[in-house]
Design a protein that fits this description.
Elements: E1 5-9, H1 15-25, H2 32-40, E2 45-51, E3 54-64, E4 67-75, H3 84-96, E5 101-106, H4 111-119, E6 123-128, E7 139-144
Length: about 170
């Protein structure tokens, strides 16, 4: 029998499994309280990826005025590079609509995630200095908008005028 991935709404009962994946995925994991807060927001999109009934990944996306912020996305470290992260992000796209503006932060050292985000239409558009508490690494700010899907930053708020290749 082939493995089947399902995407569904993330619920409070999923949080023990989410915390387990979170702790194995990040040097500074979110707390249980942070997940509870995001799940409590009416405007949030919180999704779980299940493989044959087991939670294997999640995504938290919150709305801020006219844009969506992907706050957290992770897949069980043992199950990465199988398309589960892409499936979660693409499900967010289908929920927010084709003209939505989405943003996220990523470590510049996380080249695999950056490549995934670029494949999904995100472009780098700036940095947040010393964003990550564990080592002071900057964050690369990435955007997915109607303009980034055309290869420009024309509709990205406060986008720098630097060449994209140097991001």
């Amino acid at each position: 029998m082939a493995a089947e991935l399902g995407i569904r709404r993330l619920v409070f009962a999923d949080l023990p499994q989410v915390i387990e994946i979170e702790r194995r995925s990040f040097p500074t994991p979110w707390s249980l309280a942070m997940f509870v807060l995001e799940l409590s927001k009416v405007e949030a999109i919180c999704l779980a990826a299940e493989l044959n009934g087991s939670l294997v990944g999640y995504i938290i996306c919150s709305r801020f005025d006219q844009l969506w912020h992907i706050m957290n996305v992770s897949v069980d470290p043992e199950l990465r590079r199988r398309g589960f992260g892409s499936a979660l992000i693409e499900e967010v796209f289908s929920n927010v609509g084709a003209d939505a503006k989405l943003t996220l932060e990523v470590r510049p050292s996380n080249t695999g995630a950056i490549q995934l985000y670029q494949q999904l239409g995100f472009l780098g558009a700036g940095h947040r200095k010393r964003y990550y508490q564990d080592n002071g690494e900057d964050a690369l700010i990435m955007w997915r908008t109607p303009a980034t899907l055309r290869g420009t930053l024309d509709d990205v708020p406060a986008a720098p005028t630097l060449p994209l290749a140097s991001s």
